[in-house]
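ugh ok fine here u go
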Amino acid sequence: MAMTVHVDIVSAEGSLFSGQGEMIYAPAIMGEIGIAPRHAPLVTRLKPGDVRVDPGQGKPMEHFYVSGGIIEVQPFKVTVMADTGVRATDLDEAAAAEAKRRAEEALANNSGKMELAKAQAELAEAMAQLRTIEKLRKMK
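structure:
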């Protein structure tokens, strides 16, 4: 039997996942990280993107979209504390595309530093959601 690590994925709305995984992939601020059981302790920020949990034993990988947050890694436990999160299969492609369009429009009509920063953050989130949806589509 393969070694596993306990994984909890939570957001302000509640728990998204609690279970075992052979491998976890997350969009850390400096790039994607892969976490296996007995990984060295680590705490880092997450950027918007796809958190994946591979439960092993031939079971399908679990996908979650997070808008950012923090991941804490211990040798036998991984905790993802997302700002907001949702199962990737529950993402709304039309809403993400509309959010992307609005953010691009706001960037084009840039009227101040605060609005520019907000539009850039909204664009990054919408693009991350669309990339997550595309990844899921390719897997099917």
